[in-house]
Amino acid sequence: MEIKSGNEVQFRQVYNELFPVLMKVAYHITYNQDVAEDICQDAFIRFYDKNMAFPSMDDAKFWLIRVVKNLALNNVKKKARENASIEKIKKAPMAVLNPFRDGASELLIQESQQTVRKAVAQLPDIYRTVIVLKEYAGLDYRQIGKVLGISESNVKVRVHRARKDLEVFLNREDVNVP
Amino acid sequence: MCLDDQILNTYLDGELEEPWKSQVEEHLSYCTSCKIRYNSLKKIKETVKSAALTQEEIQPHQDRVLAMIEKNYLNKPAKKKFLGKEIKFTVPQFMGVAAAFVIVFAGAFSLFGNREASSIPLPDVNNTINLEKITPVKGTEVTTQSKTLDDYTLDEILKYLDGKGYSVDIHLKSIQPIEQPAVAEPAPVEEAPVEEAPAEETPVIEEVTVVEEAPVVEVVETVEETPAVEEAQPAETVKE
Question: What is the ipTM for the molecules in this complex?
Answer without folding.
Answer: 0.80
